[in-house]
Amino acid sequence: MEICICQVSVAPIRSSSSDKSEMVSQLLFGETVEVLEKKGTWRKIKCTWDKYQGWTDHKLLKQITPSELERSKEDPSYSLELAQGIMADDHFLPVLMGSSLPEYDGMRLKLGETEFIFNGQAISPMTSNPSLGILLKIARKYLNAPYMWGGRSPFGIDCSGLTQMVFKMIGVKLLRDASQQVGQGRNIDFVEMAQPGDLAFFENRAKRIAHVGIVLPENKIIHASGKVRIDKLDHFGIFNEEKNKYTHKMRIIKRVLPDEMPKSIEQGNESEAKIENQIDLF
After folding, report:
1. Half-sphere exposure of 1 (CA within 13 A, CB side)
2. Would the CATH topology of 2-123 be identical to that of 127-255?
């Protein structure tokens, strides 16, 4: 089994082995994959995090050993900066919010044999015990990111990419697409029973799940539609005040957060409170 890691800022995952094919998702720096098939310079991959499959150019990947993969899983860390340069001995490389920082010790990270310095904000969900407050702050950092089909970065993201990345940074695994994410968690019967951090799903005219967002306090939702934005939410769906109409029809609300997750700084531990207070929105 060949295992690789994304060695560039962001790499497209395509539906077939061609630059002209549809981009269905993205890899961010530090994310790992298993190679399933080779076709010229193209590799069919399966993402370690969500098992999503697609094709990407082998030049964007770097082969790693199984032991390096295991070390990257031990205490994963993710960048909280919209974009931040990491510095090696002879070059810089920009990493984007949500990028994995392999073997990160608070200052240094490693990509194969290359060591980088990272001076930005990062989060390690296994050791920081993230709270709901952290999740909502991370979600708001994506505000105004442009919508991009298949995108997973603050420079272009789709609705399920937004939910997946936000939850990933607090250690909660979501599948890649809204139609897959709706099968996770437990049902919430009424929108009045929804809590901040729940996922709200919406259907298209064919009655298929086609959209997802994160419930916020005060009957609001953050979601990617044109751009990442905050709108009103009720039992009918999403109401866009700028357009003065409902834009998405409600289907179901799911709760994926564990009940024991701290809801506020006061309920979290000291390190978690420090992280929440230090997360910059801009």
Report:
1. 11
2. no
Contact 176, 196 (CB under 8 A): no
- For residue 154, what are the CA distances in angstroms to 7, 92, 95, 112, 238? 18, 20, 11, 26, 22
Q: Domain limits of the chain? A: 2-123, 127-255
Check: pTM over 0.85? Answer yes or no.
yes
Options 2.30.30.40, 3.30.565.10, 3.20.20.190, 3.90.960.10; CATH of 2-123:
2.30.30.40
In the chain, the amino acid numbered 136 is L
Superfamily covering domain 127-255: endopeptidase domain like (from Nostoc punctiforme) (3.90.1720.10)
Q: What is the pLDDT along the chain (282 residues), one digit of tens a residue?
A: 899 999 999 999 999 999 999 999 999 999 999 999 999 999 999 999 999 999 999 999 999 999 999 988 888 999 999 999 999 999 999 999 999 999 999 999 999 889 999 999 999 998 888 899 999 999 999 999 999 999 999 999 999 999 999 999 999 999 999 999 999 999 998 889 999 999 999 999 999 999 999 999 999 999 999 999 999 999 999 999 999 999 999 999 999 998 877 776 444 444 445 555 556 544
